[in-house]
User: Which sequence fits this backbone?
């Protein structure tokens, strides 16, 4: 079982989370982009991250993916996971996140976010629980509440999902469903 070294205030922030904002490149992927012969981009996604997102969604949390880029692969992955809010080719992530919060009747203190580079800072600076993968840019890692022990695209998002589920008292119940 993975143990989290977190302080009480971080745990309280995770307990309040009702929505999770995620970047894609460097967070849901390792940041690598493959281009096919026709110019289409292909991105590898991690199944552990996807399963964690499914748990959040099944438990009633909103997952919002906001990416500065777009791809058919990302659209297919989000659909497969049941992501409620997918927004691609976004230049002003903060404004869009505020619109999403307003639509769902939530505020910044009820939001978590994971990003890996400077364009993610406008959201990370406002949410109640900001996070970054281990491989995020150093400027982000020094400014977020929590840094995953995992790399982007290699379980960092799952680690965030597990943290939230533990803080909200849902983790053990979900796990026990597979043990019985």
Assistant:
């Amino acid at each position: 079982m993975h143990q989290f070294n977190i302080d009480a205030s971080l745990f309280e922030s995770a307990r309040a989370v009702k929505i999770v904002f995620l970047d894609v490149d460097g967070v849901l992927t390792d940041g690598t982009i493959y281009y096919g012969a026709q110019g289409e981009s292909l991105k590898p996604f991690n199944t552990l991250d996807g399963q964690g997102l499914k748990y959040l969604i099944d438990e009633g949390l909103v997952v919002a993916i906001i990416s500065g880029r777009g791809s058919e692969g990302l659209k297919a992955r989000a659909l497969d996971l049941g992501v409620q809010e997918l927004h691609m080719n976004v230049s002003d992530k903060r404004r869009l996140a505020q619109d999403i919060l307003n639509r769902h009747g939530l505020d910044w203190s009820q939001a978590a976010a994971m990003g890996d580079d400077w364009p993610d800072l406008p959201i990370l600076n406002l949410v109640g629980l900001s996070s970054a993968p281990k491989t995020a840019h150093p400027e982000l890692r020094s400014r977020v509440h929590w840094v995953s022990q995992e790399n982007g695209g290699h379980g960092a998002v799952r680690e965030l999902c597990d943290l939230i589920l533990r803080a909200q008292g849902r983790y053990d119940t979900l796990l026990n469903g597979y043990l019985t």
